Every structure is written in C-alpha cells, then in structure tokens.
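Fig. S4 source data, part A: sequence.
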Amino acid sequence: MKGQCVCGKTTFNVELKNHDVHACHCSICRRQTSGVIMTLDVEQGGLNFINNDHLSIYDSSEWGERGFCNACGTNLFWRTKDQSYCNINAFALDEQPQDIHFDMEIYIDNKPAFYNFENQTKKLTEAEVVALFTGNGE
C-alpha cells in the first residue's frame, strides 16, 4: 500500500500486519492531533519511505519514537526504538483497505470524558500498554 503526508513531500510504501485500527488516547497523540490518532500495525520492516527528505523522528519516550513530515507536520508513524513494532497513521494511506475494522483503544484511562466511540473495542490502560512494550508496568 502507498501513503503520504498532507503536502506529499514524504511518501512511503507499507505492508500492513492486518486491517485492525487502534485509537490512542495518550496525551502525546491527543496533543499532536487535537484528538486521538488512529493507526494500523505494520509488518516488521514493512515501512519503506520513497521520499524521506522531509521525514523527521521525534524521540517521544524511553522506548518509542514518532515520525512526521517536517514540511507539513503530518504525524506518520510511531515505533519502538528497536523497531520491533511500528504503526502507521491510518489516514496517511492513499486508499483504505476495504475490510478495515476499528479494533482497540489504548491509553483508555487517559481518554477525556467528553467523547466516546460507539464501537465495541478492546481497551488497554496506560500501564497495560507500557508493560507490553517495556516488559514492566512502570
């Protein structure tokens, strides 16, 4: 699948692990997007940039980093620093998979009270997400 940022200066090919969309309610995602970010999991090594002249990486935690276009600001991906896990902004794809499915909400305990999604999804707390990627719940 192909995708790009808003201005088209950062383009990529991606191999998705599945078509399950995850919504992140963490404070960083909400601050970056003025809402949740919706992502799709990428096969390990499956994100390849065609044009990355404007790709910047932001070191967002001890174990994670975010990629964005420094020309237009589009948030493109989040990945672990060891690159064993990566997800892509679901709306950066040129075309959505036809069988796309809203599957999970993470950092659910950080979600503001003024909105809710109708869909029935799996829900993980901040501690559960941190434990998945770090091996502990700190």
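Fig. S4 source data, part B ends here. The mean pLDDT is 95.
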